[in-house]
Design goal:
Layout lengths: L23 E2 L3 H5 L1 H12 L2 E6 L3 E6 L2 H9 L4 E2 L18 H4 L10 H16 L3 H19 L4 E3 H6 L1 H11 L6 H14 L7 H21 L5 H7 L6 H32 L11 H14 L6 E6 L3 E3 L2 E3 L4 E4 L1 H5 L31 H19 L4 E2 L21 E3 L6
Helix pairs in contact: 5-11, 6-8, 6-15, 8-12, 9-10, 10-12, 12-13, 12-15, 13-15
């Protein structure tokens, strides 16, 4: 990675997204509460590709169109993942909040071509070793334990006591870490900070702590392998180094925990606030399945993903993208593109959304299936155990995380008839 320093006094270079004005800062209450309205506004003003400003007014392009995003993710030869191509490194300070996810690392996320196929192949085969029936059983056991801790009180705040805890416990169990304890809790918190730092948080330090904990896990599994994802990656004939495995495990855990937790959260919110699901919500498997898929279209957990970097000057959505420009994948905007949903009707039965991305760098198979097992089991088990679950506040009182990247609630307070264990 090029050495970073303070922004240059001369402003953005000619041809970059910010040059000429009109770029929107990717921040503010619009993203927190009504991002869909903001995406519509951006699309009306700029078309399917909009000039935007990241933290510190760093210029980038936001891809809003479904077909344009599909094109970007299908053409790695034009829009690649190696961030060392970025033409803005001279303007990036050492403590930039997005650095953990943009600064080049020896991770599968930044590899290309044959090297990416090799690394992604290791992850795919390691994930294929997870038995989905066993995972569902384990998730039910985890859910039962979490629910038992608050079932007798008749009330709970689900984000902290259930939604984030369940997928993280399941994921670290799949990776061979202890199921519970302070290690897991710290890992959850550090992943949250590194993805969506609040004021006073240090995302770079949090990401370093995540790496240290995963490095310890890899060391332990190198000495004592077991029936888990980490061990299968270590024993794979591709012969990845420990550092490569640490980086790829961080990607696997981060991609599994935060997005899956918010998928659970957003689905529960839909089921508890939308009258279309009110009749069959209690134990209604069909309704849960429809809600899970609708959320991926309308409230997808990963709103935007950074990113791709232009390999050479090219055209996209009527825009001139210069070599080295950063392209942000507007997954939420693309999923609600009116070009694919005439009259604003989203068919929940359709699964052609881009929530797991697309192309060579999409979530590796069978990751989406495992995420679905975790999310579906979490929602169904909660509704089965607490059939009269209702919100403890008015729907409009729920608040969203202040994030342009992830879509999830800050809290989900509920009430129910206390259950004596």
């Amino acid at each position: 990675m090029t050495e970073t320093g303070s922004p240059t006094p001369d402003g953005p270079p000619p041809g970059c997204p910010a040059h000429g004005g009109g770029a929107l800062r990717l921040a503010g209450l619009e993203y927190q509460q009504t991002p869909s309205q903001l995406y519509r506004s951006l699309r009306r003003e700029h078309g399917p590709v909009a000039p935007v400003l990241l933290d510190g007014d760093i210029p980038a392009w936001l891809v809003l169109g479904y077909s344009e995003l599909t094109y970007v993710t299908n053409h790695d030869e034009l829009f690649a993942r190696d961030s060392r191509r970025w033409n803005q490194w001279a303007n990036i300070p050492a403590d930039w909040p997005l650095l953990p996810f943009v600064g080049y690392q020896p991770s599968v996320l930044f590899t290309e071509g044959e090297e990416h196929q090799r690394r992604a192949g290791v992850i795919t085969e390691a994930l294929e070793g997870v038995d989905q029936f066993e995972l569902a059983r384990d998730c039910r056991e985890i859910a039962d334990g979490l629910i038992a801790a608050f079932a007798g009180s008749g009330e709970a705040e689900l984000m902290s006591s259930y939604v984030h805890a369940l997928p993280m416990t399941a994921v670290v169990q799949m990776c061979g870490m202890p199921q519970a304890g302070s290690d897991t809790e710290r890992l959850v918190d550090d992943l949250r900070i590194s993805l969506d730092a609040a004021e006073g948080d240090d995302p770079v330090a949090a990401y370093q702590r995540v790496g240290e904990r995963i490095a310890q896990l890899v060391k332990e599994k190198r000495e004592r392998p077991g029936p888990d994802i980490t061990s299968r990656m270590l024993l794979h004939p591709a012969g990845l180094t420990d550092e490569e495995i640490v980086q790829d495990l961080i990607s696997v855990i981060a991609a599994a925990q935060q997005p899956t937790a918010n998928w659970i959260c957003n689905t529960l919110r839909l089921l508890l606030t939308d009258e279309r699901f009110a009749i069959n919500v209690s134990g209604g498997r069909l309704s849960v399945g429809e809600a899970l898929n609708e959320v991926l279209w309308l409230d997808t957990p990963t709103q935007n993903f950074i990113g791709r970097w232009a390999v050479r000057d090219t055209q996209l959505g009527g825009r001139l993208i210069r070599a080295g420009d950063c392209v942000v994948l507007g997954i939420a905007a693309a999923n609600t593109d009116p070009q694919i949903w005439p009259e604003s009707h989203v068919g929940a039965e359709n699964s052609a959304h881009l929530s797991f991305s697309n192309g060579e760098h999409r979530c590796p198979y069978p990751a989406p299936l495992l995420a679905d097992v975790m999310a579906r089991t979490a929602v169904e088990t909660l509704l089965e155990r607490l059939p009269d679950l209702v919100l403890a506040v008015e729907p409009e009182e729920l608040t969203w995380r202040d994030s342009i990247w992830m879509r999830g609630l800050t809290a989900l307070p509920v009430q129910f008839t206390p259950v004596v264990q």
